[in-house]
Amino acid sequence: MSTLTATHSLRRRARGFAVPFVLLALWEFTAHRDAAHQYAFVPLEQVARASVELIRSGELYVDLGASLRRTTIGLVTGAIAGIALGALTALSRSAEKLVHPLFQALRHVPLLGLIPLISLWCGTGEFAKVFVIFLAAFYPMVTSSFDGVRRIDHRYFELAHSYELTRMNWLRDVLIPGALPDVFAGILQAVPFAWITATSSELFFNAGSGIGSLMQSAQAGARVDVLMVCVAGVTLLAVAMGVLCDRVARRVLRWRDHA
């Protein structure tokens, strides 16, 4: 039975790679049609040579590392601030009336459309790049934490009040376990947004190291192969971060399987 299960799992994973392999095959076929297509769709062996070149020079490590650092800082700080504000507005009607309408209005403003304004206020340095990522993580975390707290059954609050739980015990036994599923859902949503805005902010604020700066240089030099390496590197890091967050969520929330 275990062998059949393992075989089924292997087949299911293999099916997940079918579409990427087909797309790569189409890319390679298009790249070898004529010179015009080869310029836009560079052969995969050229992309491989570019990746080796960037790895040997250390440029890829430096730029991906800078983007990873910015994304992590913006994601963590944005998540913490978003959880705090979401929980506050969910628990306090006064805070909800004061903050929630303004937040809902700002949430519908395209984030990348704020970049020119942010550049005027914060310049084009490191703080501006991290601040854009902060906002990208902040918005979904406010919404997810607000929904998570609001979904907690009020009977649990009444039970905690009847048992006269301390504030710390109330947080540990009622609020945090009840809101965690939505909070982790918000984190998984915030990760791709953070990476999208990280790359975009580096493209707009073209100063210093970062994968966006490397992409800007590759575009100026018509290096499609380097652009593809950058896209692949960002994708791998974003997927790895998402998988890590998902595994942490599964481990933290495993108590729900026994509830």
Notes on the structure:
The chain has 259 residues and is an all-alpha fold. The protein has one domain: MetI-like fold. It has helices spanning 2-16, 18-31, 35-40, 44-57, 59-91, 93-107, 115-122, 126-150, 154-162, 167-204, 211-220, 224-252. It is globular and about 75 Å long. The mean pLDDT is 83.
Mass-distribution shape: globular
Mean pLDDT: 83
CATH superfamily: MetI-like
> Could you give the count of β-strands?
0
Fraction of residues in helix:
over 70%
Distance between the termini: 28 Å
Largest sheet: none
Per DSSP, the total helix count is 12
CATH architecture: Orthogonal Bundle
CATH class: Mainly Alpha
| Rg over C-alpha atoms, rounded to the nearest angstrom | 23 Å
Q: What fraction of the residues are assigned to beta strands by DSSP? A: under 5%
Order of helices and strands: HHHHHHHHHHHH
Indicate the low-confidence ranges by residue numbers: none
What number of structural domains do the residues give? 1
* Structural class assignment: mainly alpha
CATH topology call: MetI-like fold
Q: In a nutshell, what does this entry contain?
A:
The chain has 259 residues and is mostly helical. The chain is built from twelve helices and no strands.
